[in-house]
Amino acid sequence: MQQLYPPRSGPVDLETAYAYPDAADDRAWVRANMVTSLDGATQGPNGRSATVSSPPDRVVLSLLRRLADVVVAGAGTVRAERYGPADLPIAVVSGRLELDPDAPLFTQATHRTIVLTVEAAPADRRAALAAVADVVVAGETSLDVHAAVDALAARGLTRILCEGGAHLLGHLVAAGRLDELCYTLTPTMVGGHSARLVESALTLHSTWTLGHLLAADDTLLMRWLARRD
Fold it and tell me: What dihedral do alpha carbons 87, 89, 92, 93 form, nearest 10°?
């Protein structure tokens, strides 16, 4: 792997390149990790990101999970990517709670799964999930991003890794709570129809600074940092 920006010779220490800032010791730091093909697809025809991934991307994905305290993902992403138990807590964002309490993500989790939902969620589904997960209400009819992030931080989960989907990323950006985007561009084209990297009904005003640009086997791996006023 080669570091193209900032220019640097020699081998890349990935753990150093993707280390969380010291600020994450005191407050939540929200990092997203996303991958697209050259033609901008976030997943292939099977609806999974693995279709557009690459070996270097999977190496970084594994590293980012090891560095994080918790992985956050929308329910649609959890279903499409078939999330199962992991070596760290998984937090699922869902307003309608269309989740299976008998799924391995809940019944076989090493760390009790967290469900971030809203007050308007169906009471019966909420009760069923509360038996196998920690259900956290953050918002009345739509997700209160600040409340959700603060709830995770209150549990000591300050290094937050968001793995999508696009609408959840849109909420994070709109709320000004996405601190960092790790974005991989792979040397593939898949055509068809795919969601954008970020989906939002709102017009977003968000500017970013390139932290680093790495290259490996024609895969480009970027780390973008949000500019804060």
Answer: -140
Whether residue 108 contacts residue 132, with contact meaning beta carbons closer than 8 Å, is answered with no
Give the DSSP letter of residue 58: H
Could you give the angle at the alpha carbon of 56 between the alpha carbons of 55 and 58, nearest 5°?
65
Both structure tokens of 95: 């307003």
In angstroms, rounded to a whole number, what is the distance separating the alpha carbons of residues 98 and 162? 20
Taking the C-alpha atoms of residue 228 and residue 207, their distance in angstroms, rounded to an integer, is 9
**Single pTM value for the model:** 0.95
117 φ/ψ angles, rounded to the nearest 5 degrees: -140, -170
DSSP H or E segment with residue 214: strand 208-216
Nearest to 70 by CA among 94, 92, 90: 90
Give the pLDDT confidence of 197-207 residue by residue, as tens digits: 999 888 888 99
